[in-house]
């Protein structure tokens, strides 16, 4: 059976440089045949790791294809990275084991870097191999730092190395506005959490003080995507929209460097490989990361991370390789785009989804966050106990990116009282939230946009804050509002709060 694609993992460079055909070489026919026997079709021109991980669900089929990789180095590397990147391995593996496999992958890159061939370098930089490590509960700063140091050193051995080490020149201070660039490839140019978190912030910058640059893919230089709500306002609010050829890393580095920016802001480092590759270079005297992707970059050429004192724990600086800047605001201005994206009643997406939702008195527990945020070990420790306390509850999850084995494991843990919904149009998703009794913030990597959407629909989301920023947004929003009731401090309290709000409609409405 074919697995679903992970948009976070889409390659940045030409797939031909790291394609399945290039990597398995003379074994291509065998790889295609093995996949076909499992009911999957793999495209030999797409990037190898992306193609195999997103199309192959069965572990035995995955391992058989990985064993056909001709490079001894890449074969060993893929067998380590599968534990954090492949859905079945990912959900079956505990966090400590994932970290151990990632450390092994780093050691392999360090060992083979001096002798790496062009194909091997292309494969390494074409996908965000470290991305899924973001969702483990272990500290990530040193892990990310080690990985990016490996890759940066690897690239430095190639002809691109001269661009990485060329310092950004600051122009003489004769201009009266700071030149600030926002690297918008790729989440700022699509309807994503990053776009919704950042669009109003960029639009709100004082044009008397800042000359702004929005850096996007070349096809959006003249005009924004047609179906992107609010994009005309964002594109029109900046002084310059700069289009880059995302398949030519040298051209991107050169083009951004020639903007002579004072500050370059990355709102999503790590979610797309190109964000990491450009951040390895010193393209501006000051380089800033922020959420977007709510974790440290681990990249030494990124100077600051912008966050908020409402979210961060007392020892937050230890989580960042950058200098942490904690604002007194929530550091976002969140737009409510629900009206523009609300689907008409009677539309196929809207109608088919609402038809499968059981009516009252069934209590709907919304857990519809991306599959990577679902920690099966935490789920098994908490959600069956919530079900025991509220036997008429049904739990809602997203179907996308869950392997069938993982869906079966969740269904078994929750005694079959679970629905897996397809990818929904945004308006329908918001309607599902509105129909839910409560939402559960997943742990340790919680929600941000989901929490804000729940507030816009007047629904409670029960949260257990994590130790790092991704698991602390919801409690920060609550504390800013002066609401503390739905914030748990232990797993037991998380269960108790969920049961209480499910069963006590009066108390639930009081908080809502």
TrEMBL record:
<dbReference type="GO" id="GO:0016757">
    <property type="term" value="F:glycosyltransferase activity"/>
</dbReference>
<comment type="pathway">
    <text>Protein modification; protein glycosylation.</text>
</comment>
<keyword id="KW-0328">Glycosyltransferase</keyword>
<dbReference type="InterPro" id="IPR051939">
    <property type="entry name" value="Glycosyltr_41/O-GlcNAc_trsf"/>
</dbReference>
<keyword id="KW-0808">Transferase</keyword>
<protein>
    <recommendedName>
        <fullName>O-GlcNAc transferase C-terminal domain-containing protein</fullName>
    </recommendedName>
</protein>
